[in-house]
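Feature request disguised as a bug report, sorry. It would help if multi-protein outputs had a clear separator. Right now it looks like this:
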Amino acid sequence: MRTIRKFTLATLIAVLAMTAAASARPLASQRVAVESRGDVFAFALTPLGPGSLKRDSGTTTWRDPVRRVVVRDGQRIDVNDTVGRFQGSRGSLSARFHIEWTNAGNDFIAGSGRWTLIGGTGEYAGLRGGGRSGHVWLPGGKITLRAEGVLRRG
């Protein structure tokens, strides 16, 4: 009986130790949003859930997109593949964007797409992930975007 109690007590201590260690580690993944305005080439990263990433902001640069045109169900779609680099105070993020633009009328162009993180420095080093994005090309050439997704370590 004493052996069973010792085994049960040892098992309970081990389980409590593993639970404490697991709760002390940062979360493996975190939802984030990145918003950017093309008229000032600025961005803001906002955490959408708990995790180690904090709010950040800075400047955005874009690689010239690779462009092609397709027609789906009679509608012209301008497809762009590009890379955005977001340089903030906590480090930099580089992400590949695939955006499909359609004419929304009245000089507005709407785009939706997906993005994949391809590199990072500083606090963003070693992150992976991606998500979906929405874009609007406003009259006068200004662009705004919001990209939401999940980033994780490793």
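(second protein starts here, but nothing in the output says so)
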Amino acid sequence: MPKFSIVIPLYNKEKDIQKTLNSLFLQTITDFEVVIVNDGSTDKSGDIVQAVEDGRIQYFNKENEGVSKTRNVGVAKAKATHIVFLDADDYWYPNHLENLNALVEKFPENLWYATAYEKRHHKKFITPMISPVLKKGADWMGLVPHYFENSLVDTLAWTSAVCFKKSFFEDLNGFDTAITHGAGEDTDLWLRAALAAPLAFSNTITARHNLDGSNRISHTPTLIRNFMDVDTYETYADKHPGLKAYLDLNRFSFAMQHKMAGDTATFKRFANQIASENLTAKQRYMLKQPRHMLKLLLRGKALAEKMGIRLTSFN
């Protein structure tokens, strides 16, 4: 049995999948299998994968059903105790599995693990994730009991840097397939996981989120996406520090997306549920702005990133 099963959902990533696989095959730990599930790609993604000669690859085709179902199928076919996810346009440093393995060996009874990561905004601009836990130092690793308080800017768990015990993933019923097109599939799973168990985390950055990857589901039009039900988790807020603020920040994000899409009714539904004290002055200002002003702000954000400055509404 391999040490890790690496699950890669594949959908129209012919421009990125080879680079992602290259980073995988350069790992210092080689005891792994790769479960690639092609979610009905219509480009040459599948041909590129099938041309790779490596006995650790398991390749499966299925009809297009979305990333949540695709990841769940991959986990079901995985053989290892520990499941690691890697999206087809992201990147691992050669020591990423080594980093995760150190966490697993230090906390063998823990149920889920994650490493720090960085964000590639474009080829000349890469920034580290933002979280209070990073103040503990670049070499720190440990259990994070207050997941939500440490995930108010960038979430501690991110898909291409997270690892689950397969049994824990199955106990949580995996990704919710009712949520579609990047409308909170990952966030919903992290919520359920964090409510059930502490996260074992390494501050060493060994993964990269490529925000400039091709065919990103986050670019799917808002009005055809099925968003996660944030209200489901409201009853847990009293017992989990930072959860209410975390939920409200997701409501803020969903509200802004719907305002930009011209869906005023849904914007108001999300916005009216937010406790104003959980937002920064910047966020409260943005909620009040008309669409044309928000478009100008987005252009300013893009310009700042071209100049090497990260702007985010979450800090």
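Even a blank line would do. Unrelated, but nice: DSSP finds ten helices and ten strands in the chain.
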